Amino acid sequence: GVLRAKKDFGIDAQFLQSREQADYASNIALAAGRADVVVTLGYLFADSLKELAPHFPKTRFIHIEGDIPAENVASFDFKSEEGGFLAGLIAGLFTRKMLVGVLAGMDIPPVEAYVSGFRAGVRTAQKARGQKIEAIVAVAGSFNDPVKGKSLSKAMIDRGADVIFRAAGNTGIGVTEAVKGTGGVYMVAEDLDQDAEIPGRVLASALKRMDVAVYAAIRDAVEGRLKGGHRWLGASDGAIDITEMKYSRQLFDPADFRRIEKAKNLLQNGQLTVPKRYAEVDSFAAPEL
């Protein structure tokens, strides 16, 4: 989104990488001291931004994942549960062993939404297939521990899971490695298009179109229309989707692919509400697909 805005609006753009949590506040302060608009990505930035934004009243902040109550911060959250739902539906329709897994990075609200949506998607696949499908969850406690991610993934595979959804940031690299090293096991990726990492073994990627939100917010800032506040973005905004599944499409029965498309349409038209909290999953009424 930043690079597209740079090209379209002729703005200067620089990037700072935070390698650990201790970098968050210093990088925000450094960027805010130099730029008119600062973009921060990720739930873990929220506390630092809440503290620092009032100290830079002339700087406009665009924050992804987290509600920052400040006049100079436009914050956006994504309905991760919708992406998780599509991932769970795909995993549930595909599984041969009736057992699928999720690797979660940390137990924070966006990940809880992903996992809750995934479980709702699996329930929907279970209804479509008329067979019980179990979903198991492993939490790594970190977004940056691929070794632990691989170990937890292998443990789920050893239990019989043949599809794993990765919702774990860099820890999810371990999912990819575990799947790559085990025949007959597949995965669904998160946030970005990762289908080509293991063509045919990555069934799909649940896309969180951060670029859509960032580009639109920068455009508003350039035009002097950016306002503080918080907004939720989902499939109906073009912000949640899945990949075209070009490497895996042939692995699915045409009827199942139609079910996936119908689910996408329900979400895009605002006709399906997906649970975002663990406590809401059991009361979720799976739609007929």
| Helical residues, percent | 25-40%
Biggest sheet features? 6 strands, mixed
Report how far the terminal alpha carbons are from each other.
34 Å
**In CATH's first tier, which class of the largest domain applies?**
Alpha Beta
Q: Round the Cα radius of gyration to an integer and report it.
A: 19 Å
Dominant shape: globular
Number of distinct beta strands: 10
Quote the CATH topology of the largest domain. Answer: Rossmann fold
Q: Which descriptors apply to this entry?
A:
289 residues; alpha/beta; 6-stranded mixed beta sheet; 10 strands; single chain; 40% helix; Rossmann fold; 4-stranded parallel beta sheet; 2 domains
Could you characterize what this model shows?
- The protein has 289 residues and is α/β, with parallel strands linked by helices.
- The protein folds into 2 domains: 2-78 and 209-237, 3-Layer(aba) Sandwich (Rossmann fold), CATH 3.40.50.2300; 80-208 and 252-281, Response regulator (Rossmann fold).
- The chain is 40% helix and 19% strand.
- The chain has 10 helices and 10 strands.
- It has helices spanning 2-9, 23-32, 46-52, 80-94, 109-129, 146-159, 173-180, 210-222, 254-268, 278-281; strands spanning 37-41, 60-64, 73-78, 99-104, 134-139, 163-167, 186-191, 202-208, 229-233, 240-242.
- Helix 7 links the parallel strand 6 (163-167) and strand 7 (186-191).
- Helix 4 packs parallel to helix 5 (109-129) and helix 4 packs antiparallel against helix 9.
- It is globular and about 55 Å long.
